[in-house]
Structure to design on (330 residues):
């Protein structure tokens, strides 16, 4: 069983997370890469270790190679590497052969995917393109690298019982009423309701989103194993699609971040964008906090109701990348 599911596609970033000509470090499968967007919007990616003396290219800067494209410049001795990994050595005016092998990226709309150089074993989910078509992009938040393995991260995200523990301080969720789980192999849907305790006026004022929350939170999660969990929320003001993304940086480090999309049904909705992002950020902080307070590999001797999402994760992990007989619907 692979602990990092080599052959699955991973969403490394949304293009809005990269400023033009600003190098940024991304980790995948234990290797660091430098990602940068040139003025034409092309996304480039090279291994982050400079082939001269190993400096982190992501700590350097970008230099225009022509009007639109750019190279990344090493912060140590200022060698500039173009998107193919070629450089021009001082005293020479000829490009070298590639000194670095670019990481293969698949850019769809604003979504930057990669198989990390492995042979694809499953297709890239199309759901994000569909969301981008129907919804307006609100923003990204909570880009966090958590010291935990991929499986622990996914178990947490598909654990429908942790709302009233891990996230209790935020929503005052009193219980989770599980409704339905639809197992569709590497895709699934979960529906549940969460009645919340009343919040005081001062709580509402410090967290205005609470004003828009109904007494019972209705959750619909759409899951695309292993990289995406999409939370669809509805209120009278509009609809949000909160997309949680996972990236296995190494065996022991897993990255997560959130992309937020919305459909406004009321002018007030648009002014709430920042609040939605802040709320998602708190949710991710709470999840990261609990993940760092778990003894990994503790034998599970107690099983609660509604752990079907975790059963789904474990089964998919074990089966990956074989075809799956869906048998967990209920
Ligand atoms: S280490 Fe990068 S140019 Fe020397
Ligand atoms: Fe959570």
């Amino acid at each position: 069983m692979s602990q990092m599911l080599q052959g699955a596609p991973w969403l490394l970033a949304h293009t809005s997370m990269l400023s033009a000509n600003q190098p940024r470090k991304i980790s995948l499968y234990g290797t660091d890469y430098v990602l940068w967007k040139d003025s034409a919007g092309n996304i480039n990616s090279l291994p982050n270790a400079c082939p001269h003396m190993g400096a982190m290219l992501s700590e350097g800067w970008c230099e225009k190679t022509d009007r639109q494209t750019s190279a990344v410049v090493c912060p140590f001795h200022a060698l500039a590497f173009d998107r193919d990994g070629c450089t021009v050595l001082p005293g020479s005016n000829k490009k070298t052969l590639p000194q670095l092998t670019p990481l293969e990226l698949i850019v769809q709309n604003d979504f930057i995917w990669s198989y990390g150089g492995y042979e694809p074993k499953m297709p890239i989910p199309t759901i994000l393109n569909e969301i981008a078509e129907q919804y307006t992009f609100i923003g990204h938040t909570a880009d966090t690298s958590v010291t935990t393995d991929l499986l622990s991260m996914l178990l947490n995200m598909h654990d429908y019982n942790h709302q009233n523990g891990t996230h209790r301080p935020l929503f005052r969720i009193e219980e989770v009423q599980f409704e339905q789980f639809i197992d569709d192999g590497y895709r699934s849907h979960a529906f549940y309701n969460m009645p919340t305790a009343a919040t005081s006026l001062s709580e509402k004022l410090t967290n205005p989103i609470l004003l828009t929350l109904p007494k019972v939170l209705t959750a619909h999660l759409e899951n695309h194993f292993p990289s995406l969990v999409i939370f669809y929320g509805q209120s009278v003001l509009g609809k949000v699609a909160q997309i949680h993304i996972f990236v296995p940086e190494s065996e022991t480090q897993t990255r997560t971040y959130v992309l937020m999309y919305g459909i406004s049904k009321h002018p007030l909705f648009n002014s709430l964008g920042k609040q939605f992002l802040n709320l998602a950020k708190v949710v991710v902080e709470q999840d990261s906090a609990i993940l760092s307070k778990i003894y990994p590999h503790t034998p599970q001797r107690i099983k609660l109701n509604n752990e079907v999402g975790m059963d789904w994760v474990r089964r998919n992990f074990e089966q990956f990348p074989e075809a799956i007989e869906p048998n967990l619907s209920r």
